User: What shape does this take?
Amino acid sequence: MTGGYTLTFTEADPADVDLLGGKGAGLARMTQAGLPVPDGFVISTRACREYLAASGSAMPSELGEEITARIAGLEQRMEKSFGAGPVPLLLSVRSGAPVSMPGMMDTILNLGLNRPAALAIAAATGDTRFMAELLVRFHRMYGEIVLGALDPGSDELTSGVGPGDDPGEAYDTLWSACQHALEQDTGESVPSDPGEQLAGAVRAVFRSWNSRRARIYREFHHIPHDLGTAVVIQSMVFGNLSGDSGSGVVFTRNPVTGNRELFGEFLSSSQGEDVVAGIRTPDPISVLAGTIPSVYAELRSACADLEQRHGDVLDIEFTVERSRLFFLQVRSAKRTAGAAVRIAADFVRDGTIAPLKAAGMLTAEQVRQVQQPGFAPAEVDAARGAGRLFATGTGACPGQASGILVLDPDRARYLAAEGRRVILARPTTSPADLHGMIAAQGIMTATGGTTSHAAVIARALGKACVVGCGDVQISTEQRTLAAGERVLAEGDEISLDGSTGEIFTGALAQATPADSNGDLDALLRAATEAAQAEVFARVTLPDDVDPARRTGVTGLVTAVDDVLAATGQLDGLVATLLEQAEISPASVAAVEKAVAAGFAPLLAAAGELEIGVRAVDFVADETREMLHQTALITRHPALSVPLGSAALIEAQLAGLTRAELDAGRPGQVHFTVRHLSDPGEAAELRAIGERVARRLGRAVRLGGYLSSPRGVFNYQSLAGTSDVTWIEVRVLQAAAFGIPARLLLDRQPLDDYVRRGLLSVDPRSGVDPSVHQLLASVAGAAGPQSGCHVGLRLSGPVTEPLVAQLHALGFRRFGVEAHEARPVALALGKAVLATRGHLSGRLRSHHPHS
Assistant: This one.
């Protein structure tokens, strides 16, 4: 093909996911493996990008000719005719992005129907009702997706059509009714020419890449907006043709628990969209073993073979037409966080993949989810005993959540933005509900199964989800939830358990999760060892140390103001300073005593772990209220610069040295001062340290927390008199962008700012080039021979791309929040994997939330 926009499944390179999209790559791989796949071809993402670049005004000039030639080849291979008899060729037209975006874009089935094709279908099957169902479904999908109909019509139009009715009369009646409804709604109608139908469908799929729901999904998952979607055009097979036909979705392992078992659902006499739409509740996949055993056996064998080939757990869509199995899609399966850990560990135990590569199958977000708290068991037992169990459905995504009942996705987002915790309840969800699903703590639906839209999206979002609550009636008009005689109103508190499928009235208290997961910890050890990195976790109290230690950290970080605040001594210090015109010797002595008393238990608990302690930062943005900052700096302007009060710095260092002696564990502490930027400051800090060492007979390692571009620029001269240096990446990035550092810990307003294209780099998830250049200069000068240990302090949630960038620069020491220690360990291991190329050529999506 001269334009090179299209490829058949046999021509395509399955590894080229960026060109073929995930769906096209999977079909090519299955076709080339000899599995039964309906014939077809792929329009590449390049065509979509060119179409979108032209603002949707015109298709690429050669694409139309290519499509016509591909259809002719398909007709010849299938011995069918597109839009004509005696054996009509009908098509499915589906989107297929390079990254998995389940349910976010569009599909059209049965394309190619016109009067000749419809009558030929009726004649070939001897079933006018079957023809009528295909026709109405096609009209409905085409009207909604291509023409933008708000009310695309109902399948009930076919209710009066019988199998033996005259096909011509039935066609004319239904076509006219459908066309009239569309013309009333949109002013347009479905063309009778199949070529025009196909061109319209391709343009609609391209447009769906920029639909509101697709953009929301990409923004939530940090997927680039410039990838574009491929279009998969495939000959139709019919799961609604007979009693021994149907459609289904199967996972090669249980995506909820990780168990080694086929998991999925099958809906007899249905087309593929029926299973995932959640409108009808399907049967478990095991039903096939009894109804069509030959298909079940073939399916099991193919699943085992595909999983082995891909080295991953797979999500497979299939159709059965008159007891003949066809595969329609294969992709890496969305899975719960717990299942992801178990599956990765099982692959290691099986010897299928190495530990580091298995760790690479996880995401940082999944690691976070494993650490999330759940309902206290005693609370759940008490709720059951008190009759608060409202309903039970099917657990689709583990996790427990409490919140106020909300029945509308817009209202869910509004209330969540106000800081309310909400549970979104819907009869069934659709892509239009995505913004509400993102905002909610948990999701429940009245219908649908574990492969419905609600279930798949909940697993992708990591939201607790219960589906198929068949006894529950959801009234969006009356804004109520009813189960028998019990009725809940919107705004009532409810709780749901995504594992058991139980819905309770009222809120349930949550318990802290187990800190250790043997499988997860083993995988993360492999990641950290491969990265040759040190991870320090932030702690404040002695009770924080053991949980941090169990995450596998190398060391700990804390701050004097945090410890004094947690031990109830900071308010007194601030009050005393506010009372004094000058900082008195008595106040300095009180600080030394308070630090010694506050830190001795913490250092004793830390044991052999290295611990970095930062001095009080009197101008810290995050503690401005606690420190009564405006009044305090007005009273003592010297406190606005790092070493403005050498006496207070000396008191903190002396108190820390005494605490180290009292704890009986010298040599494992280092002390730092924030905002250093000049060699003179580093020299002054060294002099303070020497005075304390002479007085107490013990030296503590010293250094700075660098938070400004100037400080990082002067790293080499500062390091000459320092034992250790921490660079605060968040604060440094904020300084480079000229925005408050606290904004980098929130979704808004930066989410909107980035979405509007006003920032080329999101400072929360990537390193700005100006900061990258500064950090590269530090990494180049910070080798082991420098004598100064340099680390990066990452506050707030970390992202895998950010850690990968920093690891690539050469940094190997990271200080993070304690709950981020495991996600960072994983991100470091994946950074190593990326440099080794282990993730190339995989079926799974290349973005971090696949």
About this structure: The longest strand covers residues 324-332.
